[in-house]
TrEMBL record:
<dbReference type="InterPro" id="IPR018060">
    <property type="entry name" value="HTH_AraC"/>
</dbReference>
<keyword id="KW-0238">DNA-binding</keyword>
<dbReference type="InterPro" id="IPR009057">
    <property type="entry name" value="Homeodomain-like_sf"/>
</dbReference>
<keyword id="KW-0805">Transcription regulation</keyword>
<protein>
    <submittedName>
        <fullName>AraC-family transcriptional regulator</fullName>
    </submittedName>
</protein>
<dbReference type="Pfam" id="PF12833">
    <property type="entry name" value="HTH_18"/>
</dbReference>
<dbReference type="InterPro" id="IPR018062">
    <property type="entry name" value="HTH_AraC-typ_CS"/>
</dbReference>
<dbReference type="GO" id="GO:0043565">
    <property type="term" value="F:sequence-specific DNA binding"/>
</dbReference>
<dbReference type="GO" id="GO:0003700">
    <property type="term" value="F:DNA-binding transcription factor activity"/>
</dbReference>
<keyword id="KW-0804">Transcription</keyword>
<feature type="domain" description="HTH araC/xylS-type">
    <location>
        <begin position="9"/>
        <end position="107"/>
    </location>
</feature>
Amino acid sequence: MTGIERAVEQSIRIMQSKLSEPLSIDDMARFAMYSKFHFSREFHRITGISPRRFLSALRIQEAKRLLLTTGMTVTDISCSVGYSSVGTFSSRFANSVGLPPSMYRQVGGYTKQINVAQKISAGERVRGFVTAPTVAELGLIFLGIFPTRVPEGQPISCTVLRTPGPFEMENVPPGVWYLLGHSVPASTHEALTDGLPIHVGSLGPLEIRPRVAHPDVEFPLRGVRVLDPPVLMALQKVRSAAFENNLVRPAG
């Protein structure tokens, strides 16, 4: 790990310890001991997103944990993760996770189905092959195509695999996308994975052009790192049911 990667990792750990505080880019850069502009540029290069966006994702991730493990009210949780407005918090949580905070707690962090963004009638295919370390403890593997490096909201397209191997996603519209993957051990809870052997993957940006076949891609899964943006969308249980019940479907 390079010096700047260590500095970015340390800044993320400090963010995690100060989620209730109004951190600025200047604060984060000072923790890393770099200028604001150099820190922001290198942070984005290393993690794929801006420091501010990463901090927002950490706050939503912590809110998910608190909703499932405490009896705190939604208002108290919003304050504890740095939001002064419970309305703003609830809106951002729902947009990222796919469920409002109260409903997320009510269903235990699970979702009945993954709603994908409205598909176009004809798009391009993204195909490839998922690989993983031979010693990896994998559950079902979720793959989704997203507009950014954060797995949140509705994917453009998605699929679930039982094991590493070939995959294919159809009707991906022209644009620039990110292919993101996530797998947790089968016995664990999707939203309560601190310290567990999660495996993730990221590929992109992928430029999809109309009527141009995209070359097959190799998609390696690896152990999660502090530098990886958290998975925000609710997924649990849809994986085990997806094959029997066809629960991965378009929105609307």
